Input
Amino acid sequence: MSFLDYAPAPESTSILHLKDSYGLFIDGTFVAGHGTPFASISPATEQHIAEIASASAADVDTAVAAARKAYEKTWSKLSGSDRGKYLFRIARLIQERARELAVAETLDNGKPIKESRDVDVPLVAAWFFYYAGWADKLDHAGLGANPRALGVAAQIIPWNFPLLMLAWKIAPALAAGNTVVLKPAETTSLTALLFAEIVQQAELPDGVVNIVTGAGETGAALVRHPDVNKVAFTGSTAVGREIAKAVAGTGKKVTLELGGKAANIVFDDAPIDQAIEGIVNGIFFNQGHVCCAGSRLLVQENIHEEVVDRLKTRLATLRLGDPLDKNTDIGAINSREQLDRIRELSDIGEAEGAERWTAPCVIPENGFWFAPTIFDNVSTSSRIAREEIFGPVLSVLTFRTPAEAIAKANNTPYGLSAGIWSDKGSKILAVADKLRAGVIWANTFNRFDPASPFGGYKESGYGREGGRQGLAAYLTTAAAAESASVRTSGYSRARKQAETRTLAAGEGEGK
Amino acid sequence: MSRLTVPKTYKLYIGGKFPRSESGRTYEITTAKGVFLANASQASRKDARDAVVAARGAQSGWADATAYNRGQVLYRIAELLEGRHAQFVDELVSSEGITAAAARDQVDDAIDTWVWYAGWADKFVQVAGSGNPVSGPYFNLSVPEPTGVVAIVAPQGVAGSKPSSLLGLVSVLAPALVAGNTVVVIADQAHPLSAISLAEVLSTSDVPGGVVNILTGSPAEIAPWLAAHADVNAIDLTGADALDWVDLQIAAADTLKRVVEPEPGVPARSLDRILAFTETKTVWHTKALI
Output
């Protein structure tokens, strides 16, 4: 037994009291869904966890109606300080149930317990606590006096940080005075439903938070619902485009947080020990299921060999396996579908000539797993340098000058995040100025905080989450709110005309 | 004996130069009463694409200019416009059929709009940016940066409404420039003359070539190419109310452009218009543990 072999230290699941099946959470209670229910499984073992209801279009309609009623009858009538108090309550309840939520998240998502316990859930509580305090201070949000809520927010979140993405969406929406209908990702509904229980414990007025589970069609019905005023989406750029098209001309306000292909730039004057840890954290945190993951390592040519050698040595020490084990560094891939995509793109990377290296580790028999993988000597045109893999796969490219690093970093339609490693502050600031990305981490990576705005440039989407900027995404100025009611009819007319034209064009093609 | 006047040839403004439309097309501009004034260039898809290339080429230079410098350049436009006040009044009177008093008001307002936005160049970052108190040993700062290349459909003087071709153009052009974006703008189709005269002001002021590109012609024809252009980062549809603007917005969604929706009349001066074409960048930097 080497010093790297630890005895198993699994976190107990006895803290969980899960039900066999979960309904939709609408108007303060759990109700049956009218779609075909689906199973949520543990990606680490493929074992069944619970049956989850699927919301039909009619269920979505009921949920939006509940949110509308709650917006008009209760939530918009409450004072900001009372809204804030509810959010503070929720933050505290999350802290109280933190261990339970972390275990449920790890069980359902496959991420290591040390991440759900030390990153996801603490940030969830922090997010609610931060925005709770904003609820009675909206005049200072940067939209002038008396800014208004938008109304009903439709929110669709991904599977990589299920509960954290829920917090990013719900906390600012409620603080600003909106009510919400949230759809969790199909493979990770569990913690959203536990959150619904927390909403009940907090005695939040009925209908303020509604949670509809289901697949893509449920989300599409929610986005297209005519009584929704705001759409907030985190997920793929492809779906983001569809949403942007679906809401065009409807007057719905939109925030899109989409894909990324972040450059992590390591200069030869970087603090190498920290940089190695930062590169590992950048791409192998959460199995690389991170939209802002540092998936393109740009390393200065003269230290390329050293960095890659040290990375391999470090990766060989990562422990892959049972996500509930407290020593686990790399958990399970969230779904078979995602695993297939990672495999496919990795095979393409190899076929396109990059040198593949895989960390030596034992892959468990059941579940979905992908060992940490590095591709060296990747060309800028290779698909693994251009497309989001969303897995534990790092592409290594080199550069010689800062200008070349900047050009390569910006050579992508994405623009979500980037990393810079150097001990020279003036170089960091100069490079940071030139990178077309919404979040830049200098001598660190993958840091998140409710006070810090997050979101992308270019095709990584628009709008910000976090901070005062994230609050503004759920508000409108008093003047705009007054003119909006006049314009709504114009919006629907323009939208209908566009749809008629599209339909006519489609018929023409058919003939 | 009266002197025979020398009429002006109105062309496009692309990359700091005044080319005719590559299509060779022109269209007739008349007074409100239908008397011939000039032949304006009718810009084509190719002209629009050339304009985007010029705007992209000029973007980083304009964005890298100091905020103080951008402010002075925008203020300089107001100075030169003031000097040509009478020329613009005459042009507006003949093309829009408005009274000299109304034309004077419009030119005054256009000049003051440049001054107002010029003053924002070195302030909007302070107002919209933030220092963020994150939990951990990090310096964390958020600043708005320019979105990139912005395509604009300027307010259109449509039949039945009072045109404001100069003020309408300035009211959408100036805010987009403040943060360091470069612009391709489609002028008021029926009243494009003051837009090209403004281009003469821009080309003789300190605005670098390519920062502003002005197309005259049909927005219905040109706007779809700009909305779908992969190297355009944002589209301002303020003057697109009479177009099939939802289709433009759908086309813009393919490259996830930022979209400003149509607004009737001349938009008021606002910080929101500046911020509509900015992206918030947040920089984290570690602090040593000492």
Q: What stands out?
A: Chain B touches chain A through 36 residues (CB under 8 Å). Chain B has one domain: 15-286. The two ends of chain B are 88 Å apart (CA to CA). Residues 64 and 180 of chain B are 8 Å apart (CA to CA).
